[in-house]
Amino acid sequence: MGAMSESVSVRCPTCRREHVYAAPSYPCACGAPVTPRLDRRTAPAVVTHRAWDEEWVAVRCAACGRRSQWPRPELGCPCGTVLRVAVVPAQPQAAGAGGSPERTPPHPRRAFRPVTIRTARDAVTAVAVYLRWLGYRDVRRADQRPPSGIGLAARGLLALVDPAVRPASVRDVECLWLTAMTDSADCVCFSLAGYTDEARARADTVGVPLFVLDRTGTPRPVNTLADDLDARGADATGG
């Protein structure tokens, strides 16, 4: 799929208003922009409820062949209707074309390209982009829902994304750590509002890297463990 996003005409079935829509691009781990290919023949669907598995779509990078999950394109109409724009499914990669999609990005890594955060969904997307940039594979929703926030998983890693307006608590850190131990995985925590002093102290004790997400979508290390992970990538945890 090309890096440029084509515009399509989208009609809201509620108010019949016409919109011109272009899907957003996301940075692949290889550094190339990836854009879902919109399906012009299929009418948009009205979003009446949220289900995690329906929020994501597989998109293949034309540059390296990597197949990753990204948020489904959506359009908010001024009438209040939210439309899910149809996407052409990613085609299986031909043998020998584009290299292995499972490979981690080469070192030194390209500059990180953040995703602006406006909603909780954006925060999850921003963390997924960052984890892929670090070199983690198969980033997806965690099988087990955390007591608070949103869980993401990758090979050998469990991540907590906390988009709440209050600082993450020591309980948040401990629940993440215990769940990761059960899965024999490493863990990392991302919070929009930072952490309590108790949470930071506990994270240092049990070995949990802590990041704060700013509104540009850039994770900022809070402790030394996070500094190491940001500098070394997945190699810092053996991911």
Protein model, in words:
This is Restriction endonuclease type IV Mrr domain-containing protein. The chain is of the alpha+beta class. It has two domains: 7-84, no CATH class; 120-236, Trna Endonuclease, Chain: A, domain 1 (3-Layer(aba) Sandwich), CATH 3.40.1350. It is built from four helices and 15 strands. Strand 13, helix 3 (197-206) and strand 14 form a beta-alpha-beta unit. Residues 95-107 have low confidence and may be disordered.
The span between the termini is: 28 Å
Strand order in the largest sheet: 10-11-12-13-14-15
Count of discrete domains: 2
Rounded Rg: 19 Å
From the 3D structure, determine the CATH topology of the largest domain: Trna Endonuclease, Chain: A, domain 1
Number of strands: 15
SSE string, helices as H and strands as E:
EEEEEEEEEHEEEHEHEEH
Protein name: Restriction endonuclease type IV Mrr domain-containing protein
Organism: Streptomyces luteolifulvus
